[in-house]
# Entry
Amino acid sequence: MTDTTTKPSVLFVCVHNAGRSQMAAGFLRNIAGDRIEVRSAGSMPADQINPIAVDAMAELGIDITAEAPKVLTTEAVQASDVVITMGCGDACPFFPGKRYEDWELDDPAGQGIDSVRPIRDDIRGRIEQLVSELV
# Structure
């Protein structure tokens, strides 16, 4: 049984929490299972997840339809071991002792599926690397 006090926690943050961060969270849940706690949030959350991001993930058998954009809170950052930002700049609060990474990824908002697939695949590669480092 996994001790939840030692399970690493990752928070993905982008502006709208509708595309990149939701795809990253979906990949991490899919690849790591229950070995890593997964959170995502946005500095200015959208009303819904980007449907093209949902479609791009569905092509790989990952269902993110049940997710919804969430507002970034200080508590979410404090509760996370790793904070990965995706284009939200200085909107993310900083706490000493946390691991921060900034992933420069194109925003899938307003783009078609052919443009979103490479973003999705880039995120998957980064998630695979992250899982290998954390578990």
In short: The mean pLDDT is 92. The helical segments are 20-32, 51-58, 74-78, 113-134.
